[in-house]
Amino acid sequence: MQLLQRHNILYTSAWLLAMLAIFATGVVLAAISDDKAYEGQVAIADLTVVDCLLPGQVRQLGRRTFLSARRPTRTTSADCRLRGGEYVAWDRADYKSALKVWMPSAESGSADAQTNVGEIFERGLGGDPNYPAALIWYRKAAKQGNTRAQFNLGTMYEQGHGVPKSQIEALNWYRLAWGISEDSVMFSSAVQREQEELRNTLQKQLTEKEQQMDVLNRRLEELERDKADSQAGQADSQVEVSTLRILVQQLEQQRDAQKVELTALPAAPEEPLTREPASLPATQESFSAGGAEKWFKDVKLGRYYALLIGNAVYKDLENLRTPVNDVARAKEILEKKYGFKVFVVQDGDNIEVMQAINDINDLLGEDDNLLLFYAGHGSRLQVGNQEMGYWLPANAEAPPRNTYWVPNEFVTGHLSRLKAKHVLIVADSCYAGLLSSEPSFLLIGDKIPEYSNPEFMRFKSSKRARLLLSSGGDNPVLDGKGDGHSVFARAFLDELENNTGVMAAPQLFLKIRDKVRLAAAELNFVQQPEFKAIKSAGHEVGDFFFVPRSIQ
């Protein structure tokens, strides 16, 4: 059976530059095949998000007039130019250029700038990540209460980047980012769960170490007896004895270190030995009982917008069968069931796709929500020591010609400047998981927090969210095989249509993950959806909530 997959085989010009181009017409024509391509390149540069240094403001203090320090910001190159700002035109991927913009403000104490500096070091723009430097700047911002820095520290402890890997330490930084007190029932129960799992893991490892040491010690005893009985093979025996003693010593050191770690863990709380039945905490309201909906009506979530991009007809690539249906059904469900204001780009070229992502920001307020849905071809390329993912517009050329491809960096760059509080990207394309390399704590295996807990929901709804729900990780995904939709889109849209209550994005992910995996497995295809935070885009442990109009 032939399966069609959603991937292929696998600047702005200032006046001076424009004048120089007039004298270099021959060179320009040789490098660019047609006028349209040149115009497209100029437009792309205008839409690209850059680290911009805005000029200082003229201020009046009594009779004294002075110019304030220059102000760093992230905006499009066109907007930076319009406001008289300065940015590096050609080498935006160089961390030195980005640091030049943000470092003065970071050194003067700006927590936002310090967090941006930390992200530049962590991402390793143009080189390898510098985790120790990232940690220094994150901690400076975290001490000032910057929730983005606190969240970023949590992810570093979760992944073990520059620090010993620790789920409990990660939880504590996430708690600070949420604004939850240390004695919170929700936090303490999560810590106890992680401690218990760590205790069980350490105990298992200790048992294994003891068993291994017993085996080695018995073998040592046998060798010592053989040595006493016979001098034959004494040299070989001596080598084995020395090797075994070294192994036993290493195991003893590992065992002793694990014992210390196990002893340091707080003792598990004992249940009260009484016969009086315990009652559930008052905060444990369930969705089925309507508890969450009752308080959710008092939360101001702002307006809901959706930008749906569906590319099926390609100029130079194989056409796809289902993105048109996916976008049409998504539009109907989001408008009728959830009250979204929906915008659609169908078979858009790179300029149309980029322009739509840029323009949506003009409509968004600080409390609003944005769902960005993409269905179409995707691809990847190795750029230096990093693997880059791309959305392929309708005018995309076959690899490795990526002239008209839309890079992930463009998408995530705009997420950092969008005014909306909650943003969810749903990407149904090959290699869509490359949009984020971050972990998704709170989604370890099948464990998610109590979304029926109003305390938790209030915190999540008040924080910024930049989230990714992808149809697969760094792999190809299926087109079709979902009754007129892709396998992923069918599961995603079915859950949205059947939902009757407040549903958070992690819950949606868990509902569709196994459905997609099993449906793909029936076709002898491996496809595993992913759910991640995009922390370099300004994520603050917030969430995205789907709220049907019937309970709004």
Tag the structure with descriptive keywords.
Rossmann fold, single chain, 552 residues, Serine Threonine Protein Phosphatase 5, Tetratricopeptide repeat, alpha/beta, 18 helices, 6-stranded mixed sheet, 3-stranded antiparallel sheet, 15 strands
Low-confidence stretches: 8-40, 268-292
CATH overall fold name of the largest domain: Rossmann fold
- Write out the strand line-up for the largest beta sheet, numbering strands in chain order: 6-5-7-11-12-14
CATH top level of the largest domain? Alpha Beta
Per DSSP, the total helix count is 18
Average the pLDDT over all residues and give the rounded result: 76
Can you give a write-up of this model?
This protein has 552 residues and is α/β, with parallel strands linked by helices. Helix content is 46%, strand content 14%. It is built from 18 helices and 15 strands. It has helices at 15-23, 25-31, 35-47, 77-82, 95-107, 111-123, 131-143, 147-159, 167-178, 185-229, 234-264, 291-296, 323-338, 350-359, 408-417, 454-462, 487-498, 505-521, and strands spanning 49-54, 58-61, 64-67, 71-76, 304-310, 341-346, 369-375, 378-383, 386-391, 406-407, 422-428, 465-470, 503-504, 530-533, 545-546. Helix 16 (454-462) links the parallel strand 11 and strand 12 (465-470). Residues 8-40 and 268-292 have low confidence and may be disordered.
Question: What is the structure about, briefly put?
Answer:
This protein is of the alpha/beta class. The chain contains 18 helices and 15 strands.
What is the secondary structure topology, with strand pairs?
Blueprint: H1 15-23, H2 25-31, H3 35-47, E1 49-54, E2 58-61, E3 64-67, E4 71-76, H4 77-82, H5 95-107, H6 111-123, H7 131-143, H8 147-159, H9 167-178, H10 185-229, H11 234-264, H12 291-296, E5 304-310, H13 323-338, E6 341-346, H14 350-359, E7 369-375, E8 378-383, E9 386-391, E10 406-407, H15 408-417, E11 422-428, H16 454-462, E12 465-470, H17 487-498, E13 503-504, H18 505-521, E14 530-533, E15 545-546
Parallel strand pairs: 5-6, 5-7, 7-11, 11-12
Antiparallel strand pairs: 1-4, 2-3, 8-9, 9-10, 12-14, 13-15
